[in-house]
Amino acid sequence: MDMKNAENANYTQTDHEVNITEIKGMEILPSNMAIKKYEWTREYFKGKPKEGYFIWIKEQIDFPVTTCMSIASKSVSQNLQNLIVIEKDLKIKLRGTCNSLKKDLCSRHTASGKIILKKNAVLEYNHIHTWGNEDVVNTDYEFILEKGSKLDYNYKVSSTPGNMKLNTKITCLENSTANLTIIGNCENSDVKIRDDIILKGKNSSGILKLRLVGKENTKILSHSRITTEAECKGHLDCQGLPIHKTSEMILIPELICKDNQSQITHEASIGKISEEELNYLKSRGLNEAEAIELIVNGFLEN
After folding, report:
1. Quick one: pLDDT at residue 4?
2. pLDDT at position 298, please?
3. CB neighbours of residue 173 within 10 Å
4. DSSP track, the chain
5. 24, 137: one domain
6. Residues 298 and 234 placed together within one structural domain of the fold
């Protein structure tokens, strides 16, 4: 999200400066104000948040709710606690962007939060990160899906920081569905990813999909897990593509079955670029760098 689009976001934070645009049917507050106004939010926050947002969607909103968290100044450290609550039977779209506006800011972005989907709520959440190679990023989000709710969470890091830790946990209650997609185009970075889907309620289901590319000077450690605690179905699909000799990639898929009526499956692979495909693209007039970039883009979107 560029600065022009950020001006239209419902919650914008640049460094530590906050701007909020109100919408009918939804309440937005800084987290440190929300915890004072609504005592019930204290069970979701860890201690007293210093910054971050509280978004409570109470009525149907037919356009995407947007947030934009940016760092614009040298050596800024953001420490965010966020809470999103979506009331029952609503169908909501969210767009979130987190980024540094320059490549050499040496910033630190730490964000934790919870997203609560009430009964039969539906959420499509597209979340994009773009950072400089000297930044440090730690994110830790938990989703709680109540009965009959549905989540499509698409996370993409288009430019990785020098050091990144990404933790995502989704708990699915009865008849709820979670689809989690993580896309990482990683370069000059140390990336650690931990993602969990816990199928806790009967007839819940979950799909966890990862597409990770390792470019120059990159280490990726990804640990993905689906746990079943009731009769339910889940699938884990993680694929990695190291394209440079200095890239290192470890993918760990894990399935834990605690109910013998459940069904969980997985597929995992780390591959390399096909010489046949590369030569074909070069024969069509692309140079090697252009051909590799085209193959990488196709892999990430597959």
Report:
1. 42
2. 83
3. 20
4. --HHHHTT-SEEEETTEEEE--BTTEEEEEHHHHHHH-GGGGGTSSS--SB-EEEEE-S---S-EEEEEEE-STT-EEEEEEEEEE-TT-EEEEEEEEEESSTT---EEEEEEEEEE-TT-EEEEEEEEE--TT-EEEEEEEEEE-TT-EEEEEEEEEE--SEEEEEEEEEE-TT-EEEEEEEEEE-SEEEEEEEEEEE-STT-EEEEEEEEEE-TTEEEEEEEEEEESSS-EEEEEEEEEE-STT-EEEEEEEEEE--TT-EEEEEEEE----HHHHHHHHHTT--HHHHHHHHHHHHHH-
5. yes
6. no
| Same-domain status, 114 and 67 | yes
Q: Are residues 24 and 142 in the same domain?
A: yes
Q: Report, as an integer, the average pLDDT of 159-181.
A: 97
pLDDT band at residue 199 using 50, 70 and 90 as cut-offs: very high
Q: How confident is the model at residue 6 (pLDDT cuts 50, 70, 90)?
A: low
| Two tokens, residue 177 | 């569905």
The number of folded domains in the chain is: 2
Q: Are residues 269 and 297 in the same domain?
A: no
Same structural domain, 101 and 144:
yes
Integer Rg of the chain from CA:
20
Same domain for 279 and 265: no
What is the residue-averaged pLDDT of the chain?
93
pLDDT tier at 2, thresholds 50, 70, 90: very low
Is the same domain home to 236 and 283?
A: no
Q: Which residue has the higher pLDDT, 5 or 26?
A: 26
Q: Give me the amino acid identity at 253.
A: P
pLDDT tops 60 at residue 239: yes
Task: Report pLDDT for 33.
Answer: 96
Domain that holds residue 28: 3-273
Rounded to an integer, the average pLDDT of 243-254 is 94
pLDDT attached to residue 193: 97
Q: Which residues contact 260 (CB under 8 A, 6 or more apart)?
A: none
